[in-house]
UniProtKB/TrEMBL annotation:
Domain HTH tetR-type, residue spans: 13-73
Gene Ontology BP terms: negative regulation of DNA-templated transcription
Tree of life domain: Bacteria
Keyword Aminoacyl-tRNA synthetase: no
Protein name per Swiss-Prot or TrEMBL: TetR family transcriptional regulator
A Gene Ontology molecular function term of the record: DNA-binding transcription factor activity
Pfam families, sorted: TetR_C_1, TetR_N
Keywords: DNA-binding, Transcription, Transcription regulation
Keyword Transcription regulation included in the entry's annotation: yes
Residue ranges: DNA binding: 36-55
Length: 222
């Protein structure tokens, strides 16, 4: 009887927010493959049925975890925020979120209709509208920005994950820069020229510089 009451108390205290928070911890530690209802039940010290009362299946759980992890990046800008600043803020927020939660990138790529992606599109789209982009170019402009944001952020997170334990970023980047500098100048003149910039670049600064290049193109002539 004591065990039953204890189990009932734990189940009664279970909430959707607790489940999603635990799911994010599992995803951060083990990736999507490590997120199972069995692992989640063990982590929360409850049963599968109690979890599924709040979240029906893994797909729904992943969508909820994605929204929760991205919510800080997708808050509406303060009234009066310039469109360019609003876009930059959202972009950097998503970049940072994917850097902290690498599993977000694949989730956003593979489930474009999920709530987090819908919110991201809306935030970027409003910023593009605010820049005065022509009506017939709004979708293309927003699509370019969304693709750049998710693509670059995901690649950056993937690079960090693929590094061997103990490897330091500056050593990895330095080795790649050394490789570029060693290439045949007749065949790889650009890479040799860019090697110095690669060696000292800052990921966040380069990411935002790319956003600025896109925005400059969208607003050229205005």
């Amino acid at each position: 009887m004591t065990t039953s009451r204890s189990s009932g108390t734990r189940s009664a205290a279970l909430t959707r927010d607790r489940i999603v928070a635990a799911a994010i911890e599992l995803l951060d530690a083990q990736g999507e493959g490590g997120l199972t209802f069995r692992a989640l039940a063990l982590k929360l010290r409850t049963g599968h049925g109690a979890i599924q009362w709040h979240v029906a299946n893994k797909r729904e759980l992943l969508a909820a975890a994605t929204v929760a992890a991205l919510t800080p990046a997708l808050t509406s800008p303060a009234p009066g925020t310039p469109p360019r600043v609003a876009i930059q803020t959202v972009a950097l927020g998503v970049f940072t979120a994917i850097d902290e939660h690498p599993w977000l990138g694949p989730q956003l790529h593979t489930a474009p209709s999920q709530p987090a992606m819908v919110r991201l599109w809306e935030q970027i789209g409003r910023g593009v509208e605010g820049l005065g982009v022509a009506e017939n170019s709004l979708f293309t402009a927003a699509s370019t920005l969304v693709s750049y944001i998710i693509g670059v952020a995901s690649q950056n997170a993937s690079n960090a994950q693929s590094a061997a334990p103990g490897d330091k970023r500056h050593e990895i980047v330095g080795a790649l820069a050394d490789l570029w500098e060693s290439l045949d100048p007749a065949e790889y003149s650009f890479l040799r020229r860019a090697a110095g910039q690669l060696r000292v670049h800052d990921d966040h600064a380069e990411f935002l510089a790319g956003i600025d290049i896109i925005l400059d193109g969208l607003t050229a002539g205005r």
